[in-house]
Amino acid sequence: MGLNSYFSIAYLAIFLPVVIVAYALIPRRFRWVVLLAASYVFFWLISGKLIVFILISTLTIYGVGIKLDKLLAQRDELIAADKSRRKELKAQYARTMRIWVAVGVGINIALLAMLKYLTFFSTVGASLLSLFGVQVDPIVSTIGAPIGISFYSLMAASYVFDVYRGTAKADRNIARLALFLSFFPQIMEGPICRYTQTAESLWAGRDIEKDNLYRGAVRIMWGLAKKLIVADRLNLLVKPVFADYASYDGGIIALAAIAYTLQLYCDFSGAMDVALGTARIFGVELPENFNHPFFSRTASEFWKRWHITLGTWLRDYIFYPISLSKPLKNLTKAARKTIGNRYGPLVAGAITLFCVWFANGLWHGAGSQYIFFGLYYFVIILLGGFIEPLAQTLSEKLHYSRESRWYKGLQIFRTLIVIFVGELFFRAEGLDAGLAMFGQMVAGFTFESFTNGAVLAIGMSVGDFVAIAGAVVILLVVGIIEERGTVISAWLCEKNLAVRWVVLLVLIFSMLIIGSYGFGAAPLEPIYAQF
Amino acid sequence: MDEVIEILEELKPGVDYETNEELVSKRVLDSLTILALVAELEDAFDITIPAVEIIEPNFNSAQAIWNLVNRLMEEDD
Prior knowledge:
The complex is a heterodimer. Chain A is 75% helix and 0% strand. Chain A has 20 helices and no strands. Chain A is globular, with a radius of gyration of 25 Å. By secondary structure, chain B is an all-alpha fold. At the A-B interface, helix 12 and helix 13 of A face helix 2 of B.
């Protein structure tokens, strides 16, 4: 595995240590140069000439940001001179600024669409036209997509929106903006940061502190353990079952859906551990992308704990702006008057939720299974909105507490099933395969493969299952401790040196001993780097 | 402040809005309820609440909502 994985030797044993040493040796005021140069070298080594696209994004948002800043200053000057025209001037300038926002965001989204979705949409378009007897060849993009375009395009768009809204000040330093957009630990798989969250601390060139170095290293090792011990090992089961699902019964397909969910979590959250750990070493705090998602009581809560920065991006830049547009606000009011407070907001909410979940599905990839995945959650969350008042009434009538342990447990169990089914469609090789697998899982469910030993013929041995079971128990215990409010890495920092080293060494040795690598291993390509 | 509490009680009864300071962080108010609340507040106080103001600190308690309303009323004057 080359540099295109944060778990690779090339990244962890060569690239990262070189950057850390260069960063530590150089005077503070030039440290940003090290980070920016490292980020662009990293990008170049993976995407080569496609680096031009992140440069276009940077230049676009830099120019649009300054233009918006000038318009804001002009507007405020005019308002200060004549306060009676405040409302009129605000509306007038808002119209001009919106055009610039459309330019800035439009260029970035157009690049994303061209590089990532052109082939998909032109194929869909050609198929639709063929229904009307018009035969056209779909356009096939041969350029390829630069690494992380789905992540940095959203960051670029959020910067433009934030300057327009006044929540971020336009940056006149293009190098700082370039670093914000391209910072190497986050470029491949996120998190999707906001300008106000990271730009300043990236630029500050903070010293590498002992505590940050330790916490960063533990976090990186923790991520690496998730990947090597769990995600890679599960590939021995997930890959063959999804590739040849027709040869397996419903029980095995259900097991593969659960295994894939765990694999995706360990791969993606493990990559986030490496990203956040790396950033911490440089004194930069990236936003968390996961918060123990498998403890969620509802599908909607799950998305507040899973890929958090994508969820908040969609909420802030799609959900609320659409919901608060005049036509939808009027619809909400009218619906509330007609069908009441409980269901009224759901009418307008359904329109916005559809936009959000369609965007969520599409963001993950140009494929019908991803759009289905998004719309699956749209239906589940909308249904949740309708059922919620009923569940509340039922609990009042039957006198049971919705906060009791058994009720919470049932809710978590139900949500886990929703998640496993969603991930089955997400991983399936196309929507048709997903539907076939789902049908097979439900109609052909049997425990036979578990009792006759067929499950062990797929690729994972008894030892592999034991290692996974052990890892799940550890993840569960860590999850429970952190759910109760203890941040383990911070807690470790307060312990004496011996304890701290023992923990780090246990992590390293557990990876060396039970990590899935070497002969017979099927290492997993980073899943989210493909989106 | 009382008017804000009245609106909240109408939208989602059975919550102690006088003392609860985690309305959003503890998911008492979900995003759809917040949308209905925004529409009500805009009508009641003749204000416009922009998307940028829909953040947790502005909706976590009745007092925070009241502060937001007051600030937006002052800005509109």
